[in-house]
Amino acid sequence: MPDPAVPPSPHHESAGPGGSPGAHPSPTRSDLRADCADCFGLCCAALPFARSADFAADKAAGTPCANLRTDFRCGIHADLREKGYRGCTTFDCFGAGQKVSRLTFGGTDWRTEPGTARVMFEVFPVMRQLHELLWYVTEALELAPARPVHKELRRALDRIDKLTRTDAEALTALDVNALRGEVNELLLRASDLARALFPGRRKNHRGADLVGARLSGADLRGASLRGALLIAADLGGADLRGADMIGADLRDTDLRGADLTDALFVTQSQVNAARGDAATRLPASVERPAHW
């Protein structure tokens, strides 16, 4: 029997095709998922990491990981967590790796053409941010209550998608922070409209330091958890339906038995970094991590 205190879900709907005849179709969720088999191991070479609980060794930006094979596959992929590379299992490029490898650089890899390496490694983190924005805007366009901002969101989607198809020089010159600021205003409006469906006073924990907080069983329906630090927090059995999760740090957050149905802007990376179980309810846009 439905809970009478909980409104219907935010009614995710299809954003529909975008663009004019002859234009590139709007990106879909599948376009924004990593395909490591179609990438030149960019996350394993372009990005730095420091020896920590997430990484077993230091690695400088632009230096290939010692575990990266010549075919751009990871030599310890099946044992990353056991060998101290948990951080690799939580990273998500949102499909930027294959876009840079196959579109921006036309399938020319940095090993065959070493002269492309520096620029390719500079482009990759920019493309990742653009694809992350595409993920959020795509979701906002699926929110029926956010219809008042759909027109502006579609324009933003087309603009960002067009940027992802420009050349390497244009991408490295792009002011991504300014773009994120513009898009964030639209995402905030979409979030407010979607969360307004939930009754009562909605909690505002935006940017809050909730490291290790005990929130087991908490009613966080429609709450704002944007940018909240929830590292190692206990959210077991919490009700997070309709909560805005954009940018929330969920490393080692206990989500066992929590309900994130229709939680807004949840990413695979966030879920991978958290701890959950078979009873954790997730949005349809993300997959249950194998290590849960």
- Main sheet record: none
The helix content is: 25-40%
Number of E-state strands: 0
Order of helices and strands: HHHHHHHH
Gap between N and C termini: 29 Å
Strand content: under 5%
Evaluate the radius of gyration. Answer: 20 Å
- In terms of quaternary structure, the protein is single chain
Give the number of helices: 8
- As residue ranges, the low-confidence spans are 1-11, 14-22
3D shape: globular
Can you give the mean pLDDT?
Answer: 92
Helix vs. strand class = mainly alpha
Question: What key attributes describe this structure?
Answer:
292 residues, mainly alpha, globular, disordered N terminus
Topology at a glance:
Elements: H1 42-45, H2 86-90, H3 96-104, H4 117-141, H5 150-164, H6 168-172, H7 176-195, H8 268-273
Helix pairs in contact: 3-4, 4-5, 4-7, 5-7
Written overview of the protein:
It is a single chain. Helix 3 packs across helix 4 and helix 5 (150-164) packs antiparallel against helix 7. The protein is built from 8 helices and no strands. It is mostly helical and 292 residues long. The relative contact order is 0.11. The protein is globular and about 60 Å long. Residues 1-11 and 14-22 have low confidence and may be disordered. The chain starts with 41 loop residues before the first helix and ends in a 19-residue tail after the last helix. Helices cover 30% and strands 0% of the residues. It has helices at residues 42-45, 86-90, 96-104, 117-141, 150-164, 168-172, 176-195, 268-273.
